[in-house]
Amino acid sequence: MFIALYEFKVKSGFEEQFETNWKIVTEAIYKNRGSLGSRLHKSVEGTYIAYAQWPSENQFNLDIPLPELAQTALALMKDACNEQKILKLMTVTSDLLKN
Asked: What confidence tier does 22 reach under pLDDT thresholds 50, 70, 90?
C-alpha cells in the first residue's frame, strides 16, 4: 500500500469551503483514480493534515482527469488555502489500524 501525507494551511473563514470541497475531490479521486480513500484531520493549531491510501505507487501516479464537478471543487479547495503541500510519500510496512 502507498500513502500520501498532505498539509493544508487554510485561510481564516474558509474552513467550511475547504472541507466541503475536499470531500468532493476525495470522492472523485476514489471513484475515478482508484485510491483507497483518505482521512482529513485538523490540528489544534488549525492546520489540516490528510493522508490518502493507494494500492500502489503506480496507481497514485496515474494521471486520469477528474470530472468537471471535481475540477471545480479542486479550484475552490485551492482558493481556500494559503498553502498546500505533500509532506511525505510512503509505503506501508505494518498496518494495525482497526475500523
From this structure: very high
Tell me, yes or no, whether 99 lies in a domain. no
**Cα gap 6→48, rounded to integer Å:** 8
Give the cell for residue 21: 470541497
Q: What is the pLDDT of residue 84?
A: 96
- Evaluated on CA atoms 4, 63, 48, 11, the torsion sign reads positive
Q: Structurally, how many domains does the chain consist of?
A: 1
Residue 43, in any domain of the structure: yes
Residue 66 domain boundaries = 2-91
Mean residue pLDDT of the chain comes to: 95
Prediction pTM value: 0.91
Domain for residue 83, yes or no? Answer: yes
* pLDDT score, position 55: 95
Q: Among candidates 98, 96, 86, which has minimal Cα distance to 4?
A: 86
Pairing of strands 81-91, 48-54: unpaired
**CATH number of the domain that residue 38 is part of:** 3.30.70.100
